[in-house]
């Protein structure tokens, strides 16, 4: 008798950091993402739902593109070659509708479907490195910065059934994200406030203390310094919520840029016995 299909039970949070991740071979996170299939998830997903900090809406929204997804170059003042990069992964109206129905069933009163929006750089930059063939259907889900972390955890909870269908759920943001005080001359020195916040998150996730992470603003050190705005952190809560009960977050990559920008990335999976 054939074994039951377990789908893809792991979910992931990727820190995509700077848009230069798309071209800069000096960034360790770039090499980590290029080795993702070998080191983190060998099974090819049937589809991907990605949650990026670069799509903010007041209510949940999912894109449903017919044909290849457009590549949104939503960054300014970078090298010209970055604006020529394309990631034409196919969209999926079927998956988008499934996401919408799961969210409605879970009590989210309104879910919008955007049939024109492509993939922003929080989605396509990491996916371009993880799955360069661009042959896996991708839907993007928005974040709601007018809501709290627990709201995004519930978004993730609603998406859990997708995993059984072989859908990979990836949150994309930055473990610390205060662009106002990055230090381009920091060398290898990491600011203490950034280190302390990043380390607190690592320990809380490793112990499966998801409720504490949902309340990070009051629980974590230097939370407002690490995330003056929550847009790049909420994708973590979606990935965490989608992971399910009795899971924990495993640190799968750790590096820094500019002394304050953490590239910490996590895999959420069942706790080791």
TrEMBL record:
Keyword Oxidoreductase in annotation? yes
Start and end residues of each Extradiol ring-cleavage dioxygenase class III enzyme subunit B domain: 11-268
| Keyword Oxidoreductase set for record | yes
Q: Which cofactor does it need?
A: Zn(2+)
GO MF entry, a single one? zinc ion binding
Sorted alphabetically, which Pfam families does this protein's record hold?
A: LigB
User: What keyword terms does UniProt attach to this protein?
Assistant: Dioxygenase, Metal-binding, Oxidoreductase, Zinc
Q: Which domain of life is it from?
A: Eukaryota
Q: Which PANTHER family match?
A: 4,5-DOPA DIOXYGENASE EXTRADIOL-LIKE PROTEIN (PTHR30096)
Family according to the record: Belongs to the DODA-type extradiol aromatic ring-opening dioxygenase family.
Name assigned to this protein: Catalytic LigB subunit of aromatic ring-opening dioxygenase family
* Native organism: Perilla frutescens var. hirtella (Perilla citriodora)
Q: What is the organism lineage in this UniProt record?
A: Eukaryota, Viridiplantae, Streptophyta, Embryophyta, Tracheophyta
């Amino acid at each position: 008798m054939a074994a039951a299909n377990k789908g893809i039970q792991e979910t992931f949070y990727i820190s995509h950091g700077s848009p230069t991740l798309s071209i800069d071979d000096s960034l360790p996170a770039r090499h980590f993402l290029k080795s993702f299939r070998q080191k983190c998830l060998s099974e090819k997903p049937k589809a991907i739902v990605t949650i990026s900090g670069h799509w903010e809406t007041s209510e949940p929204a999912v894109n449903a593109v017919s044909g290849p997804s457009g590549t949104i170059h939503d960054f300014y003042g970078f090298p010209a070659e970055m604006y020529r990069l394309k990631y034409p992964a196919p969209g999926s109206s079927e998956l988008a509708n499934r996401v919408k129905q799961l969210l409605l069933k879970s009590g989210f009163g309104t879910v919008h479907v955007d049939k024109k929006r492509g993939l922003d750089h929080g989605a396509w930059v990491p996916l371009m490195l993880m799955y360069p063939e661009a042959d896996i259907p991708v839907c993007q889900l928005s974040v709601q910065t007018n809501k709290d972390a627990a709201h995004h955890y519930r978004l993730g909870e609603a998406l859990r059934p997708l995993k059984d269908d072989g859908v990979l759920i990836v949150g994309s943001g930055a473990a610390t994200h205060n662009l106002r005080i990055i230090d381009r001359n920091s060398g290898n020195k990491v600011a203490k406030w950034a280190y302390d916040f990043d380390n607190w998150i690592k320990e809380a996730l490793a112990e499966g203390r998801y409720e504490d992470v949902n309340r990070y603003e009051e629980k974590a050190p230097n939370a407002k310094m690490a995330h003056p705005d929550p847009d790049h952190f909420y994708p973590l809560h979606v990935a965490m919520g989608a992971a399910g009960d009795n899971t924990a977050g495993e640190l799968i990559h750790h590096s820094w840029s500019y002394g304050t920008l953490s590239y910490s990335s996590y895999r959420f999976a069942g706790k080791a016995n």
